[in-house]
Amino acid sequence: MQKVLVVDNNPVVLKYMDSFLSKNGYSVKTAENGLVALDLIQDYTPDVIFVDLIMPYIKGELLVSILRENKALSNSSIIILSGIAAEIELDYIAIGADACIAKGPFNSMGKHISFTLDKIRHNGEKRQYKPVVGLEDVFKRTMTEELIIAKQHWEIILESISDYIIELSTDFRIVYINNAALGYLGNNKKNVIASNILTLIHTEWHEKLILYLEQIKNNITTKPIELSKEKECYLITAKYLRSANGDSIVLIIKDISLQKQKEESLNNTINEREMMIKEVYHRVKNNLAMVSSIINLQIGESENEEVTDSLNDLRSRIDSISMVHAKLFRGKDLNNINLGEYITDLVGNLIDSLVHDGRTIVPDISVPVVDIDFDKAVPLGIIFTELTTNALKYAFKDQQTGMITITYSERGEEVEIVFADNGTGFPADLSINEAESLGFSLVYSLVLQLNGSISIENNNGAVFKIILPSLT
Amino acid sequence: MADYSLEKLAFEIEFDIEDYTPLLELFVETTYVNLTEISSAIKIPDSEVISSNIHNIKGASLNLGLDKITGIVEQMSKLNKTGFFTDIEAMMEECKAELKKLRNILGKK
Predict the structure, then answer these.
(1) Among A28, A24, A26, A25, residue whose Cα is nearest residue A6
(2) What's the rounded Cα separation, in Å, for the pair A291 and A295?
């Protein structure tokens, strides 16, 4: 008894073929798609195989090519049985089939099948190009023809793009693969189709890919994943396609190895640059510390109180600049420093270094975590050094305790910083822009440099109100 | 009420009723599944899924000589290509009406 395999996704056709061929003395097996057919032929060698062209998973033309290259099937006849035979000009011999029958009403289709099987069986007629049998029983469907052309159009695009496109069955077997992906695998389509994708990729990727595909299947994620090994790196995006004919998963794989290498190289360059900049900050800080130490030595040598005061002021200004460099050197951000932290440390250090007479001066600083850039940090540091030094020198002369308050508030596009002490206050006629002291001259000119303004008033002590454009 | 006769349908494609009936039963059953798929695909809309299901119905109806249903799904195929998905739903109702008639004659068997 001759053995027949029928591959068709339409259950009505499968049932008919099974019944029709069995009645005609054939032993029949059926497969609802190409994957099932390829599994069946592992231990079943049919004499005749009927293949539909339009099927889920592996399309008919590709299945015929794969079957024809199978040495175990070298004596088997392959017959295309398709409803689109009227719409396409198919050179079925070229793809490896022996005959092509157009699907139509079952009565005439049955006759064409019998006729073709008889010819193959009795005359040994094989692989000679003949017109498709049965075309007279079906009418050409223009719409189907157009859909086929549109499908071919998309296939040409998929075959031409550089991204790897792979379609998998739900058990991860390859049912479609484009040229780019084949090029990566270094294999041909017929060898790869129906293979489990896991057999073709690094074992290190299996766990991550399976987890991802399961998540895609269960609609848990839509985000892509990266798979990498040594210098290879791929971005995988998966889409789950649901269909009554069989669900599938489409993988769009982008080779980002070169991009990753460039990113790594760029990160290395940035890290090297950051290290160099930190080194510069470190050296500037050390040099300023050395200058500060030299001034300190000079203070020790000085017997003139006026000179000592001037040198102390000079050293405080240098220390305030040094502190900016120290913070930039130690911080994670090379361009910005935290204003609140900087002002708190600066004022605290000045109190520690300038108050040695037993008085208690308490700083109350309410400056929030605001990152400001280096160019603004240095003048602000000097401004607060001058104002704090001035308060420590003059505001609390007659007091055992005192308080320095600094507040910060944002007002639209501007920032208001108020420096206040609860000391004796200013002489009533003091004008900061006309003050003769170096300290106030510095404060005034640095506020102008920052495009700001400053005003002073007495209100239970001296109050300096500085308005600056936004610092962030 | 029924336009169809099981004997006539079987006779037209030279089948015995005994051979024709199980194929028609299977056709009705699978076509309802195809129509459900089309209905879901219209909501997305996914023209390829619609096309694939129409292809299935069209092929099987042609096989069984169900010319009226073949004609209806031909129209659905045209509407799918032009994107008139709402009109496809109307055609689906026509198709379901035909399936109902087929069910009736199968029930009377």
Answers:
(1) A28
(2) 6
Beta strand A225-229 with A174-177 is unpaired
Residue A188 is predicted with a pLDDT of: 85
Both tokens of residue A263?
């990113």
In chain B, what residues touch A144 (CB-CB under 8 Å)?
55, 77
What pairs with residue A409 in β-bridges?
A: A416
pLDDT in tens, A348-369: 989 998 888 888 999 999 998 8
More confident site: A374 or B26: B26
Give the alpha-carbon dihedral of A339, A343, A346, A352, to 10 degrees: -150
Give this prediction's pTM.
0.62
Return the CATH fold of B17-104.
Answer: Four Helix Bundle (Hemerythrin (Met), subunit A) (1.20.120)
Instruction: Please list, in sequence order, all residues whose beta carbon lies within 8 angstroms of the beta carbon of residue A390, skipping any fewer than 6 positions away.
Output: A439, A440
Q: From the list A138, A243, A244, which residue is nearest B62 (CB)?
A: A138
Strand partners, A102: A82
CATH number at residue A244: 3.30.450.20
Q: Comparing A55-59, A112-116, A148-152, B27-31, which segment has the lowest mean pLDDT?
A: A148-152
User: For B1-58, how does the pLDDT look when each residue is reduced to its tens digit (9 = 90+)?
Assistant: 457 899 999 999 889 999 999 999 999 999 999 999 999 999 988 888 898 899 889 9
Using an 8 Å CB-CB cutoff, list chain B residues near A244: 33-34, 36-37, 53
The dihedrals phi and psi of A280, each to the nearest 5 degrees, come to -65, -45
Instruction: Round to the nearest angstrom and report the end-to-end CA distance of chain B.
Output: 16
Q: What's the domain count of chain A?
A: 3
Q: What is the CATH number of the domain that holds A132?
A: 3.40.50.2300
pLDDT of residue A24: 92
Distant-in-sequence, close-in-space partners of A213: CB < 8 Å, separation ≥ 6: A168, A172, A238, A249
Nearest to A164 by CA among A180, A150, A176, A153: A180
Chain-chain contact of B33 with A138 (C-beta, under 8 angstroms): no
pLDDT of residue A129: 43
Tokens (6 digits) for A340: 């609140």
Cβ pair A16:B63 closer than 8 A: yes
pLDDT at A3 over 60: yes
Q: What angle do CA A300, A305, A309 make, to 5 degrees?
A: 80
Q: Nearest chain A Cα to B34, which residue?
A: A244
Structural contact between residues A431 and A437, judged by C-beta atoms closer than 8 angstroms: no
- Count Cβ–Cβ pairs < 8 Å, chain A vs chain B: 76
Domain spans in chain B, listed from the N-terminal domain onward: 17-104
Q: Which of A138, A141, A244 is the closest to B37 by Cβ?
A: A244
Neighbours of A458 (CB within 10 A): 13
Q: Tell me the residues of A at the B interface, defined by beta carbons under 8 Å apart.
A: 9-13, 15-16, 19, 54, 56, 83, 103-107, 109, 138, 141, 143-144, 146-147, 243-245
Asked whether the beta carbons of residue A104 and residue B81 sit closer than 8 angstroms, the reply is no
The whole-chain average pLDDT of chain A stands at 87
Q: Please compute the mean of the pLDDT values over residues A66-75 and round it to a whole number.
A: 92
Rg (CA), chain B: 14
Same domain, A325 and A228: no
